[in-house]
Every structure is written in C-alpha cells, then in structure tokens.
C-alpha cells in the first residue's frame, strides 16, 4: 500500500467530480500520507472470510473480565 | 448546597426542583445570569433564548404545582451542541451552509431529554460540521476556555465543554467521532462520556461519519452523565443501528465500590511523549484509584498507531461522501480548514476504505484479548493540556498542524474500535489548566466506567472546581 501521489490525487478528484488544482492535490497527499503509512502493515493481509458483520459480532459477543 | 443554583450539579438541581426547594424559574434565571456574564468572554452559545426559557420554566413550575412531574429532568434548563435537530428551531451545525436550516424533526436523544422535562436555554457553539479538534470556527468565532480564555476548549463540542465548565448549563449533549466529547472535557475540566457505537440513537443528530459517530453527554459529574445516559440509551425505530441490548441502571452503577476491580495502564503509546504535567496527573490518578481499592495492572495493547490510521481512512472517506454535494455546489461556504479536511477523503481509494472497515472486527477482537482480565483501561485523553488559540490556528501559525495532530492521538483508536470512554477531570497544571484522564471500557459496558469514575469523584474534587471571571 502506497500513499497516492499528488498527480494521482488530481486524477482521483477529477473522477470523483470534485476537481482540485495541483497545489491542493499536493497538500492532500501530504496530509493523508500518515494514514496510508500507518495502515500499510494491515493492508493486504486480511483473511477472506470476515463478513458478514464481523465488527458487530465481536462488539456484541459476551466477554468475561 | 450552593446559594447560586447554576453551580449545582444536574442531579442535585433536578432533585431540588422536584422537591420544590427551588423553582425552575429561579434555576433558569440563575443560568441566564451567568450566561450574560460569561458569554462575551467565551462565545460558548450559538443562540441564547432567555424569554422562551423563562416562559418554559414558568410552565414547568405551574405543572409541578398541579402535581404533574414530567420526568427526571423536570424544569431543568439545558443547552446542547447545535447539531441536534429540534423541530421548528434553527440548527446551524456550526456552518454557514446551514445557517438558516430549520429542523422539521427532533433528534431521538434530544426528544428523550425533553420528555424527561428539560427547558431549552438556547444552542451551543461547535466546530463547523463537527470536523475539527480545537474549537476554532471561522464563521462564528473561536470558543474560549473558561479556565484561561486565551486557550482552546477542544472540539468539536467546543461550546458544550466551555458552557458546562463555566456552569452556564448543567449539562450538554456533544458528539464524539474522533474525540469531540473527550477533548473538550479534558481541556475544560468537565466530565464527558463517549458512548459505545450504537448505545444511543443517532436519529436526528447531524452526521459526520456513519461508522464512527456517537452521541453522549458532557456534565459536571459522572453521576450527571449516568442520569443522562439512562434517559437517552436504548433501541430506536428511527435508527436501526441503535442497539437493542438492555439498558442497565447507570445511576445504580455510580454507587458501587471499585474494590477489587482491575484497571489496566498501557505500557506504551498512551504513556509515550507526555507533557510532564499530564504524566504527573496520570500518576496521581493511579494513586487515587489504588487507594479506593482498585488493582492497577500493566497492559500491552496492540499497535494503536494502526488504529489511528484506520480511523483517519474511515472518517475522511465517510465525511467526504456525506459532504460531496455541497463540496461541488457551495465550496466557498466552507471554512478553509474544514474544506481541506473534507477534500482529504476524495483521495482515499474505495478498496483502502473498505479494508479499514473490514479490519474493525479483528482489531476489536485483538484489543479485547489484550485487555482480558481487566475491567477498564486508564489513559490520558491527550498528551498535552490545552494549547493556546493562536498556536493551534491553522493558517495563522506555522506549527499549528503539528499541534493539532498531537491532540487526537489518544482518542481516535477508541473511535475506530467503537468502545465507550469516560473522560474525568483529574488535575490541573501549575498554570491552572485542567487535565483529564479517560477510562476505556468494553463495548456496551459504560456502567463499569461510570462506577470507576464516580468512585474517583468521591475521592477528589477536581470536578467541583469552578472557573472565576477574570
């Protein structure tokens, strides 16, 4: 998982229908970089059979202290 | 009992009105008096509705005189973050875009408080669309910290934190998507409860992130928060994401001893790079909890930085999707900082967002496994006390972005996992700024947090201290 570059972000925002200029794209790349880097160890490692409702099942499971 | 009714706690004033020791009129007038004194310094209120509030208070007194007691908050005046829809009232969401928006429905959380008999004082300031952690708002001005007006309140429930701390309202609804209840509670020295995702209905509450948004109270005491949660929690046909799990007696929970409870203190992340005064308050909090009979144990948590990152991916994407129409049609009507944050979400691929969502279950399971054998985890709300408004003003201060990033470091992992967390006033810096600590619990186990928090407040008086007008 790599952080999108400013050039890629420019293209993504165009596709999204909310275009930004090159300066804003560079600012976005800088701003979201830490989130991509922080999540990189997890990205691409998740098992196939998580759904449905994996989070809700864990949230409501009885856990003893 | 204080001679100034506005200084009483929510539970105390509700009892005094019910017992006819105080009238709703007297209490409401006392709040309005303090609002008139403090509002020019704090900018905590979005709207002050003095005349309507006194009229409603008189009606509450008349009803009580006839034997009609509406509920646990009969005649108690309150104001809330200006994002809870109240039919017929303007709800700005702290924005220019919704400056004239009149709600046609009432949010479930607010309606349940109204059903318990509350009187509306007005509405409270907030960060534009609840998307920012400091309390700055370019449209309506920054909200000021009553302990030191040059410092931030924290956000996004900025008016809620400031108004409760200055005793302008007995309690206030906030919302917590990335720390927006706990940070104002920490910076302003009040008690704040971030609820489990699903514990309180979000129907009629302005959305920011459908996966992370939570509704909760800020108030003077843990007992006050317990009272409010008990009134608001529970299933709601208007919000199928609200849990159908039974609602415990939260007030009863506040009366329990913490003798024998095991409270975990993280060995890393939440204790790293702390301001020395925050570190001191953490040590002092541990000492109090030990003295009250709790056992303090070290806990090794999974990597919290990954949780923060996942939270950012989810929040940014969902907020951008919610706001996309206005980002196209009215970009000029957003404050620059809020628009920048919203634009960040446009650059997150769908697969990255969905991976972050898919990981929530395994990440929560790993966290719960790590805290097995403990009843709650204790950690600072933020690594620092409140910075100044100037140094955290992005656009006017070079280092502001770094200051802001630091603020939410300890709150976002909890949001990602959807867990409850109670922020309690735990001390003060030498310069007189409050410091809060958070108790993080298991999903839907707010009761244990309230039990620990109430025991802490029986042993300390940080929650009872009131800022003075300079």
Structure overview:
The complex is a heterodimer of chains A (65) and B (470). With 65 residues, chain A is mainly α. Chain A has three helices and no strands. Chain A has helices at 6-16, 22-39, 54-60. The longest helix of chain A has 18 residues, at 22-39. Chain A is elongated. The relative contact order of chain B is 0.14. Chain B is built from 16 helices and eleven strands. The model of chain B has no long low-confidence stretch (mean pLDDT 96). Chain B is globular. In chain B, strands 4-6-5-10-11-9-7-8 form an eight-stranded mixed beta sheet, with helices on both faces. Chain B has a three-stranded mixed beta sheet with strand order 1-3-2. Chain B is α/β, with parallel strands linked by helices and 470 residues long. In chain B, helix 9 (276-291) links the parallel strand 7 (262-266) and strand 8 (295-299).
Number of strands of chain B: 11
Q: How many beta strands in the DSSP annotation of chain A?
A: 0
Biggest sheet features of chain A: none
**Helix fraction of chain B?**
25-40%
Q: Which blocks of ≥5 consecutive residues of chain A have pLDDT under 50?
A: none
Chain pair sharing the greatest interface: A-B, 39 and 46 residues
By helix and strand content of chain B, what is the structural category? alpha/beta
**CA-atom Rg of chain B in angstroms:** 21 Å
- Spans of chain B of at least 5 consecutive residues whose pLDDT stays below 50 are none
**How much β-strand is present in the residues of chain A?**
under 5%
Please write the string of helix (H) and strand (E) elements of chain B: HHEHEHEHEHEEHHEHEHHHHEHHEEH
User: What overall form of chain B do the CA principal axes indicate?
Assistant: globular
Spell out the helices and strands of chain A N to C: HHH
Q: What proportion of the residues of chain B form beta strands (DSSP E)? A: 5-15%
Kindly report how far apart the N and C termini of chain A lie.
36 Å
Which sequence of strands runs across the widest sheet of chain B? 4-6-5-10-11-9-7-8
- Work out the oligomeric state of the chains in this entry: heterodimer
């Amino acid at each position: 998982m790599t952080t999108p570059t400013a050039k890629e972000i420019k293209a993504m925002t165009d596709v999204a229908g909310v275009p930004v200029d090159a300066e804003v794209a560079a600012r976005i790349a800088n701003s979201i970089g830490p989130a991509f880097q922080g999540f990189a160890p997890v990205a691409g490692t998740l098992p196939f059979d998580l759904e449905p409702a994996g989070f809700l099942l864990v949230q409501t499971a009885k856990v003893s202290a | 009992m204080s001679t100034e009714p506005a200084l009483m706690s929510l539970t105390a004033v509700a009892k005094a009105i019910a017992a006819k020791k105080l009238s709703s009129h007297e209490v409401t007038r006392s709040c309005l008096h303090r609002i008139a004194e403090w509002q020019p310094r704090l900018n905590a209120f979005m709207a002050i509705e003095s005349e309507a509030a006194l009229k409603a208070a008189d009606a509450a007194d008349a009803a009580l005189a006839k034997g009609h007691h509406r509920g646990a908050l009969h005649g108690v005046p309150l104001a809330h973050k200006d994002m809870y829809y109240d039919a017929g009232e303007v709800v700005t969401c702290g924005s220019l875009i919704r400056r004239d928006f009149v709600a046609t429905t009432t949010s479930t959380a607010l309606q349940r408080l109204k059903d318990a008999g509350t009187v509306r004082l007005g509405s409270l300031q907030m960060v534009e669309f609840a998307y920012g952690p400091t309390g700055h708002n370019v449209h309506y001005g920054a909200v000021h910290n009553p302990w030191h007006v040059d410092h931030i309140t924290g956000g996004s429930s900025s008016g809620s934190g400031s108004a409760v701390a200055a005793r302008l309202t007995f309690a206030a609804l906030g919302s917590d998507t990335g720390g927006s209840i706990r940070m104002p509670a920490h910076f302003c020295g009040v008690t704040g409860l971030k609820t489990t995702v699903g514990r309180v209905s979000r129907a009629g509450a302005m959305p920011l992130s459908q996966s992370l948004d939570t509704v909760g109270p800020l108030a003077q005491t843990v007992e006050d928060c317990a009272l409010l949660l008990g009134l608001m929690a529970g299933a709601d046909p208007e919000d199928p994401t609200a849990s159908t799990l039974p609602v415990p007696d939260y007030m009863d929970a506040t009366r329990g001893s913490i003798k024998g409870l095991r409270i975990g203190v993280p060995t890393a992340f939440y204790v790293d790079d702390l301001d020395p005064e925050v570190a001191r308050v953490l040590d002092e909090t541990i000492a109090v909890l030990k003295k009250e009979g709790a056992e303090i144990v070290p806990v090794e948590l999974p990597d919290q930085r990954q949780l923060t990152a996942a939270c950012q991916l989810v929040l940014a994407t969902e907020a951008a999707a919610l706001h996309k129409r206005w980002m196209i049609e009215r970009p000029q009507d957003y404050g620059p900082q809020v628009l920048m944050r919203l634009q960040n979400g446009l650059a997150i691929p769908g697969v990255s967002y969905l991976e972050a969502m898919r990981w929530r279950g395994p990440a929560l399971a790993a966290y719960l496994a790590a805290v097995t054998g403990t009843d709650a985890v204790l950690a600072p709300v933020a690594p620092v006390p409140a910075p100044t408004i100037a140094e955290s003003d992005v656009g006017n201060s070079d280092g502001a972005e770094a200051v802001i990033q630091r603020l939410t470091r300890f709150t976002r992992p909890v949001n990602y996992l959807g867990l409850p967390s109670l922020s309690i006033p735990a001390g003060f810096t030498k310069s007189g700024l409050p410091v809060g600590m958070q108790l993080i619990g298991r999903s839907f186990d707010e009761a244990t947090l309230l039990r620990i928090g109430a025991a802490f407040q029986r042993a300390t008086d940080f929650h009872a201290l009131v800022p003075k007008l300079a």
